[in-house]
Amino acid sequence: MSQKLAHILDSIAVLNSNWDKNAEISRLSFDSRDVDSNTLFFAVVGSTTDGHKYIDQALAKGCINIVVESDFISDDCNVVRVQDSAQALSIGAHNFYGKPSQKVKLIGITGTNGKTTTTSLLFNLFMQMGHKSGLISTVVNKIGNIDIPATHTTPNPIALCDLLNQMVEQNCTHVFMEVSSHAIHQKRMFALNYAIGAFTNITHDHLDYHKTFKEYIDVKKSFFDHLGPNAIALTNADDKNGTVMLQNTKATKYTYALKSPADYKGKIIENELSGLILQLNGTEVYTQLIGEFNAYNLLAVFGIAHLLELDKLEVLTQMSTLKSVDGRFEFFKSGGDVTCIVDYAHTPDALENVLKTILSFKKAGTKVLTIVGCGGDRDKTKRPKMAAIANTMSDQSILTSDNPRTENPDTILEEMEGGIDSEGLMKNITISDRKEAIKLGVSLAKAGDVLLIAGKGHEKYQDINGTKHDFDDMAIAKVLFIKIKK
């Protein structure tokens, strides 16, 4: 595939005129190591590095077409100067791949918690109802029934538009996409045309990147500010920042809620380990998902399906068959009658919601044991908060390593312990080795107890000093229950 440079740069505000508009381009890249003479290289200013530093490297590999936002001048290549190269990359990629987001119904879900579950449930619902769909999520990307491994919650602009184009070529009609705050801030999806943007909730997270909670909120809000007048914005009215998200949007506004007046109103009739019975806009439905947090996810699903004009009765019928997403309140009963739950909860709010749900169905005289860690090279402010929640809401807390990445696991654990008071430390055990921590939890759990293993969920690895080691909480727990409780 080859295109004229002028076509790729359509709708981008170019600041200079002395460039070859007819240059033939067959590839796009923002990685100077991955270029050739037919590549258009975008020198992007990122959060950790500046692509302008690597222009000479791109030139050495034969690249002759470069987009910059500096005053770089060269007689050896075709230089296009723009005000914002990250924004230009998003628009250029969208143009290069034929503006695929305009050829499907693209639904973006953003928020701190619930993005993966909501997008996955929507994808499964629409597929079950005969609408071939695409999924872009933390866990996996899907084109119909074909799985494509996911490396980021939201791919880079080139990979994202390529993936959307593949979905168009495979006749997908709808695409459900997680929209991360990093992706919004880095303008990875700046050029995309969304039919619906939805907000789940916002709690403290990613403050290692955004620095302040206000900045985190403002970044999320900018997604809705950018929606067009033909789009729809759906927000959780029970979240105190839900209406903030919609203040400046041009999109048509809708709300969903369990506790506030809303366009899509839900009520929990029954919440058991066997599932939720909900009332959605006056109609009762049984679902296989558990917990108030999933009631919100299901409300968002119901609202989006209705806004996309699917039949209400059929939607409710199909919703009753939807199953939980891998690593999201995924559980099994051991031979010794212990309920073991694996959940991705890696923020204070998510952990609290999971434990609230567990406490709502826990039987008198039984205990809750919680194993939890915090990731390295990430928001440090949530470490003591998560430890405090695990400790105060459980009969036994076990702090352990999550994905330490380049940090010392013991340092992370010390910071977590800082959130537990002296009395709480009496019912806390800290074990750096995650497998040993799970082994201890399994050993301590008695009949009727609930063992929660939180933080990693669907992940099948543990990231230690840049190396991903095989590690699956669910698989390890099942083996240990057989060995220890047989």
Question: Explain this structure to me?
Answer:
The chain has 486 residues and is of the alpha/beta class. It is built from 15 helices and 25 strands. The strands form five sheets. The chain has an eleven-stranded mixed sheet, sandwiched between helices.
List keywords for this structure.
15 helices, alpha/beta, eleven-stranded mixed sheet, six-stranded mixed sheet, 31% helix, 486 residues
Largest sheet: 11 strands, mixed
**Order of strands across the main sheet:** 10-9-8-11-7-12-13-14-15-16-17
How much of the polypeptide forms β-strand, as a percent range?
Answer: 15-25%
Shape: globular
Mean pLDDT across residues: 94
Q: Rg, please? A: 24 Å
What is the tally of helical segments? 15
Question: Which secondary-structure class do the elements indicate?
Answer: alpha/beta
Distance between the termini: 60 Å
Share of helical residues: 25-40%
Which residues form runs of ≥5 with pLDDT under 50? Answer: none
The total of beta strands comes to 25
How are the SSEs ordered, and which strands pair?
Layout: E1 3-4, H1 5-8, E2 24-25, E3 27-29, E4 39-42, H2 55-60, E5 65-68, E6 78-81, H3 85-96, E7 105-110, H4 115-128, E8 133-136, E9 140-143, E10 146-149, H5 157-169, E11 174-178, H6 181-185, E12 196-199, H7 207-210, H8 213-225, E13 232-236, E14 252-257, E15 264-272, E16 275-280, E17 283-287, H9 292-307, H10 312-319, E18 330-333, E19 339-343, H11 348-361, E20 368-372, H12 382-392, E21 396-399, H13 409-417, E22 428-430, H14 434-444, E23 450-454, E24 461-464, E25 467-470, H15 473-485
Parallel strand pairs: 3-4, 4-5, 5-6, 7-11, 7-12, 8-11, 12-13, 13-14, 14-15, 19-23, 20-21, 20-23, 21-22
Antiparallel strand pairs: 1-2, 8-9, 9-10, 15-16, 16-17, 18-19, 24-25
Helix pairs in contact: 3-5, 4-9, 9-10, 11-12, 12-13, 14-15
